[in-house]
């Protein structure tokens, strides 16, 4: 019997990020995928700001930016003409170092993650699939079938199901996967083309009861078309070609297609598993939640799952935390997944609703209202925070305690600007303390004695507008979310936080 700490089933972005995080923290992993090679099609393309922030810990952010395409604006089209433009450069510039949508196709994304993993001495076991597993209480035993048909038994402390919408891990657990299937058939096409919509920006056509968007990609004239198929053509999507569905893009958005590099059709579900954890088994990514492509959230949410779970598994396996810490994975991620599915469902329903009233709202009201809303800071920030996932927080969860200023335990740490760059220390995969103002000598001594990094930033008036409180203590988790916010800034409160949860500070 082969042995590992964590057995990861599925080597898409979710499984690869989980493997990278755990490996960097010294956890032994074995990752398998039933495909013979990494994906060769672009599939998910959007990398949101929060993912770029979190990727600093894996030293991946610059690579995604260098190889990707920054989308500066979104344009709304009606009746073959551009009706509105909302620039991202005015949205989020004071909220994150990455106030834009970054387009980096999934096939390139996976190759980058695989390369980084191989540099650490870990290789994905290809053409290998899970046939069954059993949670025996103190361990997991699993059977894997290799490329030659040989079956091997594995023992692991935990198993992570990153094996997609048809997850065998989820099916074995027997947890429900409630939701439904959209009636529309989607098509995707990666093309080289010319036209006014091929200017490096995002374009969405609001004319009909279908979704149609053009997502720019790196390279002149390169873009991803995403649309829905209507009428009788949707009955047999497997027989469709790009020519069968391209009329609307050509006519409404004035697209002149030169080359089609990839075309595919598929149906989309909107579902969330009833549980993300059962005993020693966990569900992540599409195995736990699937939803419409509206907003480009799917891959980013799976990556967020992986980072949330990774540091907790590492802490438990290295005896820095009790097993109860793992309960917080489902508590923190399942609520977000449910809200996300509900939100993307509403957006997609709006974009595809049929009937005269829906058409008027899309074609006449939306192009007028959206630019007006974008002029107001509050609405602009809300839209960006939601789409970029920087609004995601774990308030009210067991690990989240306290409030200091407008910042609560469970929040993402506010970014205070490039001049101060309070995100620089977040590349460390460990607990740390931030103080904006002055740290007391007692706190400084306590952090030194416990090998807990303390970062002190000289107070600036702008910090208050970011929600931070002067001289307050902000304890950051290894995944950079705030665990504890305390205005007193005393080491006693910090000590109590760790002791009450059975947590020890790792110097890894």
UniProtKB/TrEMBL annotation:
GO terms for molecular function: FAD binding; oxidoreductase activity, acting on paired donors, with incorporation or reduction of molecular oxygen, NAD(P)H as one donor, and incorporation of one atom of oxygen. It holds the Pfam family FAD_binding_3. Its cofactor is FAD. Keywords: FAD, Flavoprotein. It comes from the Bacteria. Residues 3-342 form the FAD-binding domain. This is FAD-dependent oxidoreductase. It comes from Dyella dinghuensis.
């Amino acid at each position: 019997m082969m042995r590992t700490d964590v057995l990861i089933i599925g080597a898409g972005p979710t499984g690869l990020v989980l493997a990278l995080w755990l490996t960097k923290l010294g956890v032994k992993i074995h990752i398998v995928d039933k495909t013979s090679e990494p994906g060769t099609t672009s599939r998910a393309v959007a990398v949101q700001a929060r993912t770029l922030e979190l990727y600093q810990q894996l030293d991946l952010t610059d690579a995604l930016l260098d190889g990707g395409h920054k989308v500066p604006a979104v344009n709304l089209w009606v009746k073959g003409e551009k009706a509105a433009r909302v620039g991202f450069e005015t949205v989020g510039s004071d909220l994150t170092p990455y106030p834009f949508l970054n387009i980096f196709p999934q096939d390139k994304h996976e190759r980058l993650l695989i390369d980084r993993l191989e540099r650490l001495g870990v290789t994905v076991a290809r053409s290998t699939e899970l046939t069954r597993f059993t949670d025996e209480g103190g361990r997991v035993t699993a059977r894997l079938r290799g490329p030659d048909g040989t079956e091997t038994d594995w023992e692991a402390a935990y198993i992570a199901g990153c094996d997609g919408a048809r997850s065998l891990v989820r099916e074995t657990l027997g947890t429900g996967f409630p939701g439904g299937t959209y009636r529309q058939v989607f098509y995707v096409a990666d093309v080289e083309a010319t036209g006014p919509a091929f200017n490096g920006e995002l374009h969405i056509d609001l004319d009909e009861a279908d979704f149609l968007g053009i997502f720019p990609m790196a390279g002149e004239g390169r873009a991803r078309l995403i649309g829905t198929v209507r009428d009788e053509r949707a009955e047999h999507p497997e027989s469709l070609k790009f020519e069968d569905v391209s009329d609307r893009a050509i006519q409404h958005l004035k697209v002149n297609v030169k080359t089609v590099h990839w075309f595919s059709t598929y149906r989309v579900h909107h579902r969330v598993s009833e549980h993300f954890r059962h005993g020693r088994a966990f569900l992540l990514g599409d195995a736990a939640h699937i939803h419409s492509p509206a907003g480009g959230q799917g891959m980013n949410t799976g990556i967020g799952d992986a980072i949330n779970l990774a540091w907790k598994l590492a802490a438990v396996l290295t005896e820095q935390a009790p097993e109860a810490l793992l309960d917080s994975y489902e508590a923190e991620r399942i609520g977000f997944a449910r809200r996300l599915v509900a939100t993307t469902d509403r957006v997609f329903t709006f974009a595809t609703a049929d009937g005269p009233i829906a058409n008027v709202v899309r074609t006449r009201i939306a192009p007028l209202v959206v630019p007006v809303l974008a002029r107001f800071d509050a609405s602009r920030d809300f839209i960006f925070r939601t789409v970029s996932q920087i609004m995601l927080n774990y308030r009210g969860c067991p690990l989240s305690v306290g409030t200091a200023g407008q910042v609560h335990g469970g929040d993402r740490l506010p970014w205070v600007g490039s001049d101060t760059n309070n995100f620089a220390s977040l590349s460390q995969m460990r607990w740390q303390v931030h103080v904006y103002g002055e740290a007391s000598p007692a706190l400084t001594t306590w952090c030194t004695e416990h090998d807990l990094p303390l970062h002190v930033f000289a107070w600036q008036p702008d910090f208050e507008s970011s929600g931070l409180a002067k001289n307050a203590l902000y304890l950051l988790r290894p995944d950079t979310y705030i665990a504890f916010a305390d205005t007193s800034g005393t080491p006693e409160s910090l000590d109590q936080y760790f002791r009450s949860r059975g947590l020890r500070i790792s110097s890894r």
